[in-house]
Sequence to fold (225 residues):
Amino acid sequence: NAGVMQNPRHLVRRRGQEARLRCSPMKGHSHVYWYRQLPEEGLKFMVYLQKENIIDESGMPKERFSAEFPKEGPSILRIQQVVRGDSAAYFCASSQFMNTEAFFGQGTRLTVV
Amino acid sequence: QQQVKQSPQSLIVQKGGIPIINCAYENTAFDYFPWYQQFPGKGPALLIAIRPDVSEKKEGRFTISFNKSAKQFSLHIMDSQPGDSATYFCAAGGGSQGNLIFGKGTKLSVKP
Fold:
């Protein structure tokens, strides 16, 4: 049973470009969470999705950031017009039910140059 | 009310010692309290979790103690090893909070 798969592992974007981060949850998991982690800091919640629905996006900036979890395919976190401050590690986690074991992927490390 | 406060920020122990990491929460609706271990460059890995119906849970060398009235929980690592050197995060979730709220992490270093 494969774990949570994130790709790419590393992503370099120039300021103003778009970054697209993908997350395939564990088999049987329909709940997906995105977190951002800055160096030497904790995990900040961004958005919680269930198949085709955004459940809670309270941690996601209102502009430039969007997320989706379509019926088929991976969850996507999209950052438009990236700025240097977007450089961070972005982690995706999945769970079978709400408030149960959540398993994390290896993350995507975004560097904006 | 959504915060989870974790301490200490860093911790150094000798091999065989018992590091203890503490967390406190405010939201009484939280009913799920996991701990994660993260190595540099890797994703957080679920270590152990507890729900409020028990005061202690043990898995291998890792033990969670839970004090519902004080709204605190802690992680103990028995017979710590250099390979346990990592950053440890506590988290809380539950009620209408579908996602986990994380503490800021504790960087543990176990000296040989």
